[in-house]
Each structure stands twice: as C-alpha cells, then as structure tokens.
Amino acid sequence: MIDKSLKSSIVVIGLIFLSNFLLNILAVLLAGVLSLKVSVYLFLFTFISSLLAVTVLGGFFTGLSASLLRLSRLLKLNNLTHPLLLRLSAEAPGTYHHSILVADLSSKAAKVIGADSLLCRVASYFHDIGKLKNPALFVENSKNEQNNQDLDLLENAKFIKNHVEDGIRLAKDAHLPQTIINLIAQHHGTSLCSYFYDLAKSKGTEGIRKADFRYKGPKPQTKEAAIVMLADALEAKARVKDNSSSIKDLVEETFADKINDGQLNESTLSERELFKLKQSFIKTLESMAHQRIEYTVNHKY
C-alpha cells in the first residue's frame, strides 16, 4: 500500500523532471538552431531546473525515504510471525483470535474511507499484546467469568486498564514502529471500563468516581486509531450475540456510545466517513457468520 506522502513525493518528482524537460525544449525553441547559443541556453535552463530540483526535492526525498521505510516495516509485521504475536497465539489464544477479527474489520473499514488499511490491520494485530502479562484475567482467555472476584471492583478495573500501558511497554521493548505504539495507546481512548463501574454502582459502593474507571487515553488522534477503537469494541460486543439480526443495532449503539462520550472528537472523522464506516462494519460482521460464545452482556473490555 502506498500512503499519501509517498504518492505526493512521486507526483512532485514527476513534475520536476517534466519541467526540466520542457525547459530544455524551450531553450531549443528560443535558439532556433543547434549552435553555441543553444548550448548556452540548454546549460542555463538545465542549471536553473537543477537548482529547483535540489531545493524542492530535498524535502520530498526525505519524505519518500521515510514512507518507503515505514511501508517496508509494516509489510514485514503483516505476516503474523513476530515473536509477540506468536506468544499471543500460544499464551492468549482468545485475545489472538479477537485481534485477527479486529484486523479484518478495521482494514476493510479503512479502505472504504481511504484511510491507511495496512496500518489498521497491523496495529490491530498488536493492539492487545498488553494482555500477555496476565491472559487469564481477560474473559476471552478464560472459561471462568468469576476470575478475580476476590479483588474489589476498582482493583479489577485497574488490572483491566493496565493492559494498554503494558502493551505500550512491550511494543517499545520490541522496537515496533511509533505509529503502532500510538494506536495501542489510543485504542481505548478515555473510555469507561463500564462493566466494573456499573457493577460498583449496582452494589452501592461508596465514593466511586467515574474518572477512576476510565482508561488513561489519549483519545484517538487519527482516523486509523478511531477505526481500530470502533472495530475492537464491535468485535467484543458482537461475541455475545447469538445471531446477526441485531448487528445493525449493535453498530449504531456502539457508534453512538463513542460519539456521545467524546471519544472520536479528535480523530477528524467526518459524518460522511462515519456513515461509510458503519456500513462497512455491518457488512463485515454479518459476513463473519461464526458461532460466538455468549459470555455476558456486560463485557469486560
């Protein structure tokens, strides 16, 4: 996949070389015949165009080189053989399966609005690697929903939320690209860890504050980060559904929750793009058509 900066660099390079060619043709036309005068004109215009090329292309070649390096790294990470992903598949198979589905959802959605689908796919593979610290704590890796019930609800929420910071540390230690690390940090934004917050409220726990049950953030700063956030939430919620008849409502509710909570405010997604994303998610979720295990309506994500 070629990103926008790479495309821009290629276009500008083409325009510079075209202008160089046209300047040389103009020199010949002005001189009229091949002579010393023509040689002077050719030298002059070529020199001027070369100066322009050096001046303009200096920045673009830097951007082109960075884009090619970034593309190469993402393609290498796209083959699922990275040690962290191999660990995830062995130690947290439920999380690994979830991540593969999130990658499919997010990459297809990104293509619909012209966002970076490769980045969404690769970031989705790695977005939950922080769960490697304690895989059994997360419901997709355990058949026992009552894990850690001996801990208080705030402590439970803290352990769940910590998978983001644990993931950032693992990603940095593995020298993953900063773009991937950013999406790991932003894939929950400042969302509420609603399962434990609602449970604390229902039990009448004293002194509970909503802020204590929220992820640290930041909120998604790019369209790609917002897409991964939405795909992550949708796959987790869809897992508790026993049929596809409510997929459309599930998508609408999830989008409304994120929008009303302000999670997409900094992502630059337009209303038209949000509409297209909804349609893509509905289509992909319905096409998955795999048997899902119903854990609990109030998921622990």
Automatic annotation (TrEMBL):
The chain crosses the membrane at residues 12-34, 40-69. The keyword Membrane applies. Pfam families: HD. PROSITE patterns: HD. Residues 95-237 form the HD domain. It comes from the Bacteria. Keywords: Membrane, Transmembrane, Transmembrane helix. The keyword Transmembrane helix applies. This is HDIG domain-containing protein. It comes from candidate division CPR3 bacterium.
